[in-house]
Amino acid sequence: MEVSTTTVKLTLPDGCNGILVKNLCDPYMRIRMERIEGPNLFSSFTPASPLTGYAVAKVLDSGHPDFKAGDLVWGPSGWEEYSLITATESLHKIQHTDVPLSYYTGLLGMPGMTAYAGFYEVCSPKKGEYVFISAASGAVGQLVGQFAKMLGCYVVGSAGSKEKVDLLTNKFGFDNAFNYKEEHDLDAALKRYFPEGIDIYFENVGGKTLDAVLLNMRVHGRIAVCGMISQYNLDPPEGVKNLMCLIYNRIHMKGFTVRDYVHLHPKFLDTVLPYIKEGKIVYVEDIAEGLESAPAALVGLFSGRNVGKQVVLVARK
């Protein structure tokens, strides 16, 4: 990755029905750096072109009837200070500005919707169930755990440092947590925290963690496959040996993306905004300042350097 500087006119070309925005904060995304072939939800990034990710942005000029100058929006945009967006159907206008705008890249944006849909729609949770979350201090995991606790579940999370483990139990209210780097036998660790087995596993890691979880799932357990961050940089990826457990214990394991649940966004906001204002949900962000810090912030995700949701602050106004 490299940072390049160019000039741009801050007005739309004649006849353009898109919008010109100033990007404020922006995360994202390892998977699209692979060459992706065949039918796939994702498309590969184009070399020598700006990366794209989810951003909060301010409209500077608009040729679209649904947007006007001064509107705040969140949705797909470029890793750049200014973007011309013509695919406006993926943008959401921000109506609630009494919360930090950066929340719309996390808690109130794609990661928040992912946690909400993955837990409530894919996992079909019930009060009193046993829930395990990997990468639990990340953008999605920290929310899944809090949703589960509010429902009355027993919740355990794994993370990669003492600081993150403490965050899970002391700030997010998990019942227990452990540092997977200190566990030489993940199967034994899970049996220690879940002597009666796991009802719900929210999968963010893959590999050895998934293999150990499969040995500890209860009959009719559910696994929501949100991500597999341990595998993204491996070639070839690790195999999973214990898939027969899906048959033995009639486990439902489903991959999903937030795009399948965009229609739930109004319901999601109606649920989560009151939780924020009442202090029932807390959210931790790791903010890197300046677009030039974005490459290091992205790479740091794969060594666990970030604590909480990684955000890049491009501009304050």
Overall form: globular
Structural class estimated from helices and strands:
alpha/beta
CATH homolog superfamily of the largest domain: NAD(P)-binding Rossmann-like Domain
Mean pLDDT: 89
**Segments where pLDDT lies below 50 for 5+ residues?**
none
- Work out the number of β strands: 13
- Under CATH, the topology of the largest domain can be stated as Rossmann fold
Rounded to the nearest angstrom, the radius of gyration is 20 Å
Q: Return the CATH architecture of the largest domain.
A: 3-Layer(aba) Sandwich
Question: Which range does the strand content fall in?
Answer: 15-25%
First and last CA, distance: 26 Å
Largest sheet: 7 strands, mixed
H/E topology pattern: EEEEEHEHEHEHEHEHEHEHE
Helical content stands at 10-25%
Tell me the domain tally.
2
Determine the number of helices (DSSP H or I, runs of at least 4 residues): 8
Classified by CATH, the class of the largest domain is Alpha Beta
In short:
The protein has 317 residues and is α/β, with parallel strands linked by helices. 23% of the residues lie in helices and 24% in strands. It has two domains: 19-102 and 283-313, Quinone Oxidoreductase, Chain A, domain 1 (Alpha-Beta Complex); 110-259, Rossmann fold, CATH 3.40.50.
Summarize the structure in words.
- This protein is an alpha/beta fold and 317 residues long.
- It has 2 domains: 19-102 and 283-313, Medium-chain alcohol dehydrogenases, catalytic domain (Quinone Oxidoreductase, Chain A, domain 1, Alpha-Beta Complex), CATH 3.90.180.10; 110-259, 3-Layer(aba) Sandwich (Rossmann fold), CATH 3.40.50.720.
- Helix content is 23%, strand content 24%.
- It has 8 helices and 13 strands.
- Strands 1, 2, 3, 4, 5, 12 and 13 form a 7-stranded mixed beta sheet that branches. Strands 8-7-6-9-10-11 form a 6-stranded parallel beta sheet, with helices on both faces.
- Helix 1 crosses helix 2.
- It is globular, with a radius of gyration of 20 Å.
- The chain starts with 18 loop residues before the first strand and ends with a strand.
- The mean pLDDT is 89.
